[in-house]
Amino acid sequence: TPSSLRDTYRSIIEDDRIDVFVVGQVTKEEMEDALSFLPSHSEKVSHYIPAQKPVNGVKRSSETQPIKQGKLHLGYRVAVDPTSADSIRMQIVNGLFGGFPHSKLFMNVREKESLAYYAASRYAALNSALYVYAGVDTKEAERAEKIILEQLVDLKAGQFTDEELTQTKAMLINARRQILDQPGQLIGWLNGSKMRGLTLEDEIHIIETATREDVVRLAAAIDLDAVYLLRGEA
Fold this sequence. Notes:
Strand content: 15-25%
Helix content: 40-55%
Structural class: alpha+beta
Number of strands: 5
Strand order of the largest sheet: 1-5-2-4-3
CATH topology: Cytochrome Bc1 Complex, Chain A, domain 1
Number of helices: 9
Radius of gyration: 21 Å
CATH architecture: 2-Layer Sandwich
Number of domains: 1
Order of helices and strands: HHEEHHEEHHHHHE
Mean pLDDT: 88
Largest sheet: 5 strands, mixed
Shape: globular
């Protein structure tokens, strides 16, 4: 109603926290002056992290649309504290699983089996989730899902080479070093790093010192939660 919308708007203005990130050659005084129009509130430094939801069976959903290429998406729960160093190490797990062109999903689902037009994964630390995205032929969706699931099983069993681990770590470290030259990415990194209290060099050190045992241990914290299939019309 008009009344509830007004109340919600007032709550946003009066109660919600505003985080402002600025990258550039500006002084603290210049920023304070530029943002002086914002409401003045006491600083809030606490961060809310949603409790980990237990996996109670795998939820499945599908729909059909007039498209030629189907889409297969898998959602995983990740039992890792997003404020911890393990959330940095989990990025190595994701890189080996589907984050890079040398990953298991890309090499086995797309290249070797030719089951997907694309196949990749993304780790969303703040949501304690990992997502797999694959463009598939609807007729091959069941087989593609089976092969995708097998890649995580292999990862949990430590079936990856030292070369793949080294390459993944190098690519993650290189991406962090590039952040300093890209203001947009730097702001994105700052938004997540403020919870962990880690510098870029801290994160690089965590990645450099991560072991094969860390990868296997963290891969075991990933559990399938949901499967979504968008089918193309016959």
